[in-house]
UniProtKB/TrEMBL annotation:
UniProt xrefs under InterPro entries: NAD(P)-bd_dom_sf (IPR036291), RmlD-like-bd (IPR029903)
Segments forming domain RmlD-like substrate binding: 46-353
Domain of life according to the entry: Eukaryota
Name of the protein described by the UniProt record: Methionine adenosyltransferase 2 subunit beta
Matching Pfam families: RmlD_sub_bind
Gene name per UniProt: LOC104608747
Residues forming coiled coils: none
Gene3D superfamilies: NAD(P)-binding Rossmann-like Domain
Source organism of the structure: Nelumbo nucifera (Sacred lotus)
Length: 359
């Protein structure tokens, strides 16, 4: 063999060994990165928003997706077809069809998305008049028995269920209800919500029930069809006609981002410290306002003629459903437990109708 050939062979052998060493190093480095990625993936908590197509649900999805570092895998459910605009905006969040009345759809979520760590139930028949006309549908939708059954059949009872309830669980005969006051609903919607609360308290070990007042704020990514309270007042006042508003019906309207902040904080606390909770919270704004005062505030923000707003008693109109008179709420538990201070009504109205609202 020519010495030159021999030299070439040695060179070839040593560079082959070096290449093999480098390859081995790269392979083990890749496996290590892959393994770490897998661990991180397995560490990521899964959040499911039930009723993600509704008013609160859409704002909530937006809230989760805007969180710094996007720490959660988020999915949502819908009942009718999900609007394409929402699907595009929250991509790659998976969307699942679910019927709360039958429980159809939950098994597919387990199979493809996996067991969620946190479920936020925003799905409901949420219009009191609709509940009054169809009490069976109201009960079957608003009492989340299929959802709770699914959670207890697939998990180890550790999923946190955050359930949206309402101020309409209260009778409305006094001001500033506390969470421990007796619940005496006066209409089917309120009754279905009380039944839901009782069902959850008897069948779940890890839950937060949020008794929300009227939720107001900007329109959603894909506009919801139901009328939004501030936008509705704005549209009737903008016509310049005289309009009647109730002076004797009081609520603590809450800005939608404050409800979202409440839910995000509960989620963060649970996914960080893992302590089970059994919590009932009033979620309202800091101001007790009548419908008349709500209209006055909108008029003041928009510069409309306040003399067009006429104060009338709620007893002067038959709305086809009983509406509690004063269900203003004491929100000190919300403030103390989660350190959340909802914004004043006038500030929320400005944000809702201001140029940044896009409504
Ligand atoms: N908005 C308020 O002022 C207010 C005040 C107090 C309490 N709350 C409570 O807060 C929660 C959210 O309210 P919201 O205003 O966001 O409600 P919403 O806009 O009426 O949305 C309702 C959601 O429920 C879903 N849904 C309806 N029937 C269903 C069924 N049979 N199975 C599964 N999903 C079903 C809808 O799905 P599709 O859109 O796909 O049909 C939608 O995503 C509700 O529990 C409500 O009672 C709301």
């Amino acid at each position: 063999m020519h010495p030159w050939d021999c030299g070439r062979g040695e060179i070839a052998n040593s560079s082959l060994e070096e290449s093999a060493r480098q390859l081995l190093f790269l392979l083990s480095f890749r496996d290590c990165v892959w393994e770490r990625g897998r661990e991180r993936e397995m560490d990521r908590k899964r959040v499911l928003v039930v009723g993600g197509t509704g008013y609160l649900g859409q704002h909530l999805l937006q809230g989760f997706l805007e969180m710094e570092g996007k720490p959660y895998d988020v999915a949502f459910t819908h009942h009718s077809s999900p609007p394409q605009k929402l699907l595009d905006a929250v991509s790659p969040c998976p969307a699942f069809p679910v019927d709360l009345q039958t429980g159809q759809g939950f098994d597919t979520i387990s199979a493809t998305f996996g067991q969620p760590d946190v479920v936020i139930n925003c799905a409901a028949l949420s219009i009191p008049r609709a509940c009054e006309t169809d009490p069976d549908a109201a009960m079957a939708t608003n009492v989340p028995s299929s959802l709770v059954k699914w959670l207890s059949s697939t998990g180890n009872g550790s999923t946190l269920l955050i359930h949206l309830s309402t101020d309409q669980v209260y009778e409305g005969e006094k001001s500033f209800y506390k969470e421990d006051d007796e619940t005496i609903p006066v209409n089917v919607y309120g009754k279905s919500k009380v039944a839901a609360e009782q069902f959850i308290q008897s069948n779940c070990s890890n839950f937060a029930i949020l008794r929300s007042s009227i939720i107001y704020g900007p329109q959603t990514i894909s506009p919801v069809t139901k009328s939004l309270p501030i936008q509705w007042i704005d549209s009737v006042l903008s016509r310049g006609d005289k309009v009647e508003f109730f002076h004797d019906e009081f609520r603590c309207p809450v800005y939608v981002n404050d409800v979202v902040a409440t839910i995000l904080t509960l989620t963060k606390n649970w996914t960080t410290d893992g302590r089970q909770i059994q919590l009932v919270l009033n979620v309202g704004g800091p101001d007790r306002v009548s419908r008349f005062q709500m209209a006055e505030t909108v008029a003041a923000v928009r510069g409309y003629d306040i003399s067009l707003i006429k104060a009338v008693s709620s007893s002067s109109v038959n709305r086809g459903v009983r509406s509690p008179a004063d269900i203003s709420m004491d929100i000190s538990r919300l403030v103390q437990t989660l350190n959340i201070t909802p914004i004043p009504f006038i500030d929320g109205v400005k944000l809702t109708l201001g140029p940044a609202a896009g409504s």
